[in-house]
Amino acid sequence: MTDRTAARAARSALAFRLAAEPGVLGIGLARRESGYVVKVDLADAAAAARVPQDVDGVRVVTEVVGAVRAL
User: Which of 44, 57, 60, 70 is 20 to 30 A from 35 via CA?
Assistant: First the structure.
């Protein structure tokens, strides 16, 4: 089980690592049965290959949400 403090630290490390990666729209925390995970929102599935499966022992999940546009 991953606690919130560890997930926050992993989120910060991953945000720094993915800052210049195209297709990464957002990085946050999400609650799962096993505790907290880092959740990465992506513009397309191709960007998922550049996202690690875990950071410092914290699981990373991805979700393709599509391009974000102003209405």
Answer: 44
Question: pLDDT (tens digit, 9 = 90+) per residue, 8-28?
Answer: 999 999 999 999 999 999 999
The residues, any chain, with a CB within 8 Å of residue 4's CB and separated by 6 or more, are 29, 36
* Predicted local confidence at residue 66, as pLDDT: 86
Give the largest CA-CA distance in the chain.
39
Assigned CATH topology for domain 4-64 = GMP Synthetase; Chain A, domain 3 (3.30.300)
CA distance 6 to 29: 11
Measured in whole angstroms, how far is the alpha carbon of residue 56 from the centre of its chain? 13
